[in-house]
């Protein structure tokens, strides 16, 4: 029998979860003697006790309300809580409950029988929260960015990781047959952990928490506890958030690696520049006994050990640790390597939209001509609107128009959550919506914002932008083309948000707001305590800052 601890006497509220399933934090009742002992010792006024016979009876246990008796025994416990319990069970369509009175010395208790748990006809698994992109705007922003920055992704910051991937490609395919100690581990991720720990052990000022090195905080944490970076202690989803995961699309678009991760001719050109700067030989011609071959053999051996051990096992005092650090340090590329990386970025594999490729190369050249240290995406878009060709200008104006639409929707969504967070009952009434300048303003202009984006997308089709972009945008946001009132706009917005969450992979996500009888109530996790302001920055990243970062790293 589990012990009856203090939690047994805690004030508990029976809550149905996904149907009429009861949540009871209780222990078993061994005997009435033990029950009276518990009742006389614990003071909270309500608790829940499971009956040990619940498997053979129609009820699961007792809700207990107790109250100290006055000497004249005239004081009675408050029965209001049991009226609430009765009503609650009725709403849950639970079986009727039965009340009993118990007296023990100076304490009187009233106990209500709990019905056995009842499940609904279908009890779906609890969906994740789905905190990213609640309005489904991000996929459209990505498609717009594809029209001029296809090889690059917004999460990319340091182009020199391509050199490290080219180096790993010299031996990673040969390790494909090794059985990893940890399920899901792979040679590329094991090599990545070796590299990241080498960087974390470096004293270089370029290796810090904000240096754009994925996973370096995990490596620092492991070193602080005098342990090694391991598969279980590394990133939760390294294939997404590790540097191989982040930069693999770019490496593929530039022809750096093949499908198995092996290094192709453009990657060998990068390694030629790398070894020229580091004054080592053998990385590309594999001369027997050369420094380059020794480095490759050491990395191959330690990557294999990391796979079979589940954690790094290399000697921190090995001279190769410093060599790996010099190769992978994102801010330490030499002039020859920079030239090779610059040539690599300027020669992407042709896509099915040649005008998009031409626009990317033009943007690459224009950004390279200015000092972008203090430029964000907004400033870079303004710059390109001024100096770019027609195909650049149309794409940048599309960014501006779509962001105006996205800012308004995001602002109104935050404003409603703010109103709901402060409303009595959690739902702002029609008068509150009418009184909100934000919601009224957005409701009044969102249809015009929508049509402006559609018109710009149609114009962009004439300069090579994918025609399917218009249909994707219209399919998702077409209902916002005609909005007659703030209340209608909010209903559209909340229905749209719920649909976006429900259709997220793999099994859908929970909406941030719940549809109740009076309207939409915000869940506490997504409440807004301070009145939101309309963003002056972009809602979404547009890869221009990532391109600028690349060019800063390889500027000779």
Question: Which features characterize this protein?
Answer:
single chain, about 550 residues, 3 domains, four-stranded antiparallel sheet, two-stranded antiparallel sheet, 20 helices, 8 strands, about 45% helix, globular, disordered N terminus
Give the secondary structure arrangement, pairings included.
Layout lengths: L18 E2 L11 H10 L4 E5 L8 E10 L11 H12 L7 E6 L2 E9 L2 E2 L18 H12 L11 H8 L18 H14 L15 H9 L13 H4 L1 H11 L11 H14 L12 H19 L9 H10 L6 H11 L8 H15 L8 H11 L2 H33 L7 H6 L1 H25 L6 H10 L8 H17 L10 E4 L2 E4 L21 H11 L2
Antiparallel strand pairs: 1-6, 2-3, 3-5, 4-5, 7-8
Helix pairs in contact: 3-13, 3-15, 4-9, 5-6, 5-10, 9-12, 14-15, 15-17, 17-18
Q: In short, what is this structure?
A:
This protein is an alpha+beta fold.
What does this structure look like?
By secondary structure, the chain is of the alpha+beta class. It folds into 3 domains: 6-119, no CATH class; 152-350, no CATH class; 385-526, no CATH class. It contains 20 helices and 8 strands. The chain has helices spanning 32-41, 80-91, 138-149, 161-168, 187-200, 216-224, 238-241, 243-253, 265-278, 291-309, 319-328, 335-345, 354-368, 377-387, 390-422, 430-435, 437-461, 468-477, 486-502, 544-554; strands at 19-20, 46-50, 59-68, 99-104, 107-115, 118-119, 513-516, 519-522. The chain has a 4-stranded antiparallel sheet. A two-stranded antiparallel ribbon has the order 1-6. A two-stranded antiparallel sheet has the order 7-8. A hairpin with a 2-residue loop joins strand 7 and strand 8. Helix 3 runs antiparallel to helix 15 and helix 5 (187-200) crosses helix 6. The chain is globular, with a radius of gyration of 32 Å. It starts with 18 loop residues before the first strand and ends with a helix. Residues 1-46, 48-60, 68-75, 91-99, 102-110 and 113-127 have low confidence and may be disordered.
